[in-house]
Amino acid sequence: MSDSFVKVGTIGDFPEGKLKKVQVAWEDVLMVKVEGKIYAIAGSCTHMGAPLAEGELEGTIVVCPWHGGQFDVTTGRVVSPPPMKDEVSFDVQITGADVLLRKK
């Protein structure tokens, strides 16, 4: 677990409603802007490791591209199986135009 924030881009790098994968030292992270707020959860499905950035976004729900499991991007919680384990979520901080990330 990291106590410090890491810059992962600028606000313009995260268009509304688009799934985006960023690589941070500890892992792949899925980031998405929904209604103007940027959220971040772990980027690999807890079921079988599918890349969630290749899935679909329905409101605040990301649908896994492999088996259709669903996670709420605002919390990381599973909302539909087959995954049973929630995704790790991250703190997102905006400083000026910079988007910073920290593992919760």
What is the topological layout?
Blueprint: E1 6-10, E2 20-24, E3 27-34, E4 37-42, E5 56-58, E6 61-63, E7 70-72, E8 78-80, E9 90-95, E10 98-103
Antiparallel strand pairs: 1-10, 2-3, 3-4, 5-6, 6-7, 7-8, 9-10
Describe this structure in words.
The protein is 0% helix and 46% strand. The chain has strands spanning 6-10, 20-24, 27-34, 37-42, 56-58, 61-63, 70-72, 78-80, 90-95, 98-103. The relative contact order is 0.24. The strands form 3 sheets. A 4-stranded antiparallel beta sheet has the order 5-6-7-8, with no helix packed on it. A 3-stranded antiparallel beta sheet has the order 1-10-9, with no helix packed on it. It has one domain (6-103): Rieske [2Fe-2S] iron-sulphur domain (Rieske Iron-sulfur Protein, 3-layer Sandwich). The chain is built from no helices and 10 strands. The termini are close together.
Summary of the model, kept short:
0% of the residues lie in helices and 46% in strands.
CATH topology annotation? Rieske Iron-sulfur Protein
Computed over alpha carbons, the radius of gyration is: 13 Å
CATH H-tier superfamily: Rieske [2Fe-2S] iron-sulphur domain
What is the H/E order? EEEEEEEEEE
Biggest sheet: strands side by side, in what order? Answer: 5-6-7-8
| Morphology call | globular
Number of domains: 1
Strand content: over 45%
Please tell me the overall pLDDT: 95
Distance between the termini: 8 Å
Number of strands: 10
- CATH architecture verdict: 3-layer Sandwich
Helix content: under 10%
The description of the largest β-sheet is:
4 strands, antiparallel
Structural class: mainly beta
Number of helices: 0
CATH class wording: Mainly Beta
